[in-house]
Amino acid sequence: MEAGESTKVGLLEKRGGSSLVKDFGSESKLLWKIAGPAIFTYICQYSLGTLSTTFAGQVGELELAAVSVGNSVIAGLAFGVMLGMGSALETLCGQAFGAGQLSMLGIYMQRSWVILLITSLILLPLYIFAPQILLLFGESPDISRGAGKFALWAIPQLFAFTLNFPISKFLQAQRKLMSMAWIAAGVLVLHALLSWLAILKLEWGVVGAAVTLNISWWLIVILQFIYIVVTKSDGAWTGFSMLAFHDLFSFVKLSVASAVMLCLEFWYLMIIVVIAGHLDNPVVPVDAISICMNINGWIAMISFGFNAAISVRVSNELGAGNAIAAKFSVVVVSITSMLIAVVCMTIIIATRDIFPYLFTNSEAVAKETTRLSILLALTVLLNGLQPVLSGVAVGAGWQGIVAYINIGCYYIIGLPLGIILGFVFDFGSMGIWGGMVGGIVLQTLILIVITSTRNWNKESQVFKNRRVNVWGGSVASVQESN
């Protein structure tokens, strides 16, 4: 954090309403410094899998389906778990950085490595027994075998996730996102060349897709770690330490809460596609929902960038004891993200008869996609605020609370509502997606109430105690006392 930034924003309450516009501009500038590179990084990393799938589609329909299912379902499940477990660092590293305890960031990162390595070993059977698992869920034998082959060759990617997410959160907490963005951009260019070579030129097909993804994700890990070691991250990296194995239990609890919170959101969208596959004549609705999900995924990268930005800002300011600055940051990022969401929603509605043909030549699929575009536009609007509020929850350490909210809103309300509307009332894909939207609306309203009614001064002191006595363990206690 640049010197004086927290203090400058923290003085907001003393400066009066006349400086509101200036304060908004200052906070917006801070947020864009984080959100801009984060959005670019997420888009580049999201594009790795998309490029592999695209090249596989040039080989044949079976290869396209195998890579698609292997990458989105098998690797996607692991990605969600590892991302969720790693997001605990957003809370801990962000607050430690805000409190000036830089050396704890490296310890926290190493603890996360230990926990995620154990998690990856637990997830390993998902890759090994992928064909049997996919067959169990009704996937065709040919696609299951192809996706299983992809999954076996993609096992190194699983262990790249183990190291990558803690490293990313470590750098994110220090606002070193430009380095991540440059690395992601360079790897994406190389990935495109390797994919062309392995999948098309050498005709490795599904295996080539897995191998190139392995190489690309490991390159990201290696280059980011070299950057950390060379720069020392301004004192945040002091080398490997046995302290990484201390006080793991409390760290595990926060990691599990983070994983549950994010996975419940991440898997929710995947389940919608699976449910649509049980409709009568499912090809058209599944294709239409998949197109809409792809568009939603691209736009969601913008929201994820703001999610990262608000998580960093809230955790930094609460760690530094600046409750007013944390609260003001929430207001600024919410307004900014919602304005962008309104623009995206307007574009979707205006082009609803055009954009489907960018993905399909089928009139039936295009017509169904156009029909779903209103719900897509509403989802994009909601995603302008919902990820921001989730980012506030991560930065503030409310993962456990939000996990319960997600279970209730998504799986007790949203999914059953979608099934009833889609199958009982025969609304088809519109009903299934409508249930999802209902769950997101309810979750967003609850998070708005929680965020707006919190006593932020009290939260700042509570998080200081938690960081020292619960999350940080004995090491943080010693540093805090110093």
List keywords for this structure.
84% helix; MATE_euk; disordered N terminus; transmembrane; MATE_fam; disordered C terminus; mainly alpha; 482 residues; Protein DETOXIFICATION; transmembrane helix
Query: Please, what is the average pLDDT?
Result: 82
Distance between the termini: 21 Å
Strand-and-helix sequence, N→C?
HHHHHHHHHHHHHHHHHHHH
How many beta-strand runs? 0
* Largest sheet data: none
Annotation field: number of helices: 20
Indicate the radius of gyration in whole angstroms: 22 Å
- So what's the overall shape? globular
Kindly state the percentage of residues in helix: over 70%
Can you tell me the residue ranges where pLDDT is under 50 for at least 5 consecutive residues?
Answer: 1-16, 468-482
Strand content: under 5%
Q: What structural class is derived from the secondary structure elements?
A: mainly alpha
